[in-house]
Amino acid sequence: MTGARDTMELREDTIRTQYDAALALLTGFDHAPRLAKAAVVDAKPERSPGIGTRPMFRSTTPGMVARSTARPGGVRLLERVEGLGDGLVSPVQASALHGLRRGLAIALAMSETFAAQSGLAELKKANLEGRLPEGKRAEFTELLAAEALTTLYTFANTTAFLLAPSMGSTTVEVGAVEEILTDNAPLALQGALWELDQDIALLATDEPRLIAVIAAFCEALMQRVALRAETAPRLQSFTGGAWRVEADMLSIAGFKPARASKGGALTIQFKKPSEVVGNHIAKYQSLRLAKMLMAYDFERKLNPFAELGGFIFTFMGDGKPGTGKTTLIQMMAGLLNDYCKIAGYPFRYQNFSIDQIDSYQGKSGQNAKAFIDNVLDPGVIGFGTIDDIDQVAGKRGDRQSSAGQQEVTAVFMGAFAGANTVVRGNCTFGMFSNYPENVDDALRQRAGARFLVDGPQSREDYIDILSLLLGKNHAIPVGSHDLFAAQEIKRAVAASFEGYSKPHEDGLLKVWDQVQGQIGTLDTLAKLGSYLKAIQQADARFTGRAIKNITDAVKVRAMDFELPDEWMENPELFLFKPYDEKLTMIKGLTTPITVEMVIQEINRYADSEFRYADKSDEVAIEGMVRDFKRQEEAKRRYLEGKA
């Protein structure tokens, strides 16, 4: 994240020398608020009945009335955090206190470094000895304020970074930070810790909320300090350099937040795009979606693609067993993991599987809700998958579905397209199945995009996959074939999209021919609407949500461009740009919507619905035929035995 800056090391011994000072700040100090008002008032014991504790004296001296009359109060963060438990410090409390102490120590070390590099250290020494020249006083004051801003931001940035792995799905709103004092660095830290103590007392009702309150406070403090720093002088020594704390893998680069991964390391086996043979449209859309996610702006907490309407929030990949659904998941997760490492963004991948269906009532729904919340976390780039969703989520009204599967279906439906669903563009959910016809209709229609995972199709595909899987431990000649030329993505995708100029499924093809015969070529909105109505008459499940999914897919096609690889490899070119600049850059790449795009997306989506319906009916018919045959055979054997 440091771009062209020369990164310096913030030495560990320099940080550890500040541990005593940091612990002293956590143990206790007195602070009288100057800009904020105390929200937590510790009750004082009465001196005797009827005599209050409030001071009765009010100064009549001119100018003294406007001065704050707040008395210094004890700030004891150590006691405040430990008081949330049952007398024994828990791992969460210890993690919070260690993070705060480490954050304070690094901030104090950064303060010393800034003072040494900016010349403030010499001015401090001269001031203490009473030999500070009068002409240097303005510079001295400005440097003290710059040091205070540097120290505050480093404390908030470091603490948020260190506590990120402990963050769950709980979020807390703390409001704006008011007690930002810039007289000097120690007073600035005392003011910030005083306000943090207030927020913990008011909002941290349990341990998960404790971490959430500290993290939210740090984010709010960073925002306010960064805003103040835009107009503050004497900050070049901090903004022009970059520092690295190796023990924490922390990068400090001016007033830019460091991002830490939230959660454990990924154990998934990644695949490269070159290892995916066939599945051209699904592969292409996965590649583009991975780059779309990276456009997410952590400060605005919004993705320009989500605002423009070309973002895929949910998608369904369906195909026969062995066609490459798992490989697609591994490819997309691998791309996101690599992109996030380059940009320094936190990435979270989670899969919801059948082992999270619990026999206890309500537990399956809780597991599904936790999965959704973890992926939706606006502080991460998230990718959530539900593999074999036909086994995980049950059809409503299906007697063979367990209560847990029904709970999961309800949670997913509410999360993917419910009244409270907010699409920020930081995450996407992929549902995969070999038997999508067994997925509840309403849940399946909540998949905004459809990825047909049909595996290798052509002769060239089968040669490519054979060569890929054989590896290099052989001397068999390739023969008359250009390896992987058929996997050239743009050419393959163009051919795949053109293939949907007419429907593929027999049921939809009949509707297409009928409408074309009645009204001719579909070249106006009225004719396209007539085609959609004819599809709805043939399949009643083709509702308004289907139209929304189609139009969303068309908008994605309007953004039928791939963000340049250079933008991912060098984050300064795009990823670290301000939100409005990202939006402008993306708008400049969009293409107009054409009739061909609309027809192709209608056919792609409707084909999938007809395919699901036909398979569902066919499976049901085949099951009934088998039952009738078994009954006939059983009856025949019974009668033979009786004779």
UniProtKB/TrEMBL annotation:
<protein>
    <submittedName>
        <fullName>ATPase AAA</fullName>
    </submittedName>
</protein>
<dbReference type="InterPro" id="IPR027417">
    <property type="entry name" value="P-loop_NTPase"/>
</dbReference>
<feature type="domain" description="ATPase AAA-type core">
    <location>
        <begin position="319"/>
        <end position="452"/>
    </location>
</feature>
<dbReference type="Pfam" id="PF00004">
    <property type="entry name" value="AAA"/>
</dbReference>
<dbReference type="GO" id="GO:0005524">
    <property type="term" value="F:ATP binding"/>
</dbReference>
<dbReference type="InterPro" id="IPR003959">
    <property type="entry name" value="ATPase_AAA_core"/>
</dbReference>
<dbReference type="GO" id="GO:0016887">
    <property type="term" value="F:ATP hydrolysis activity"/>
</dbReference>
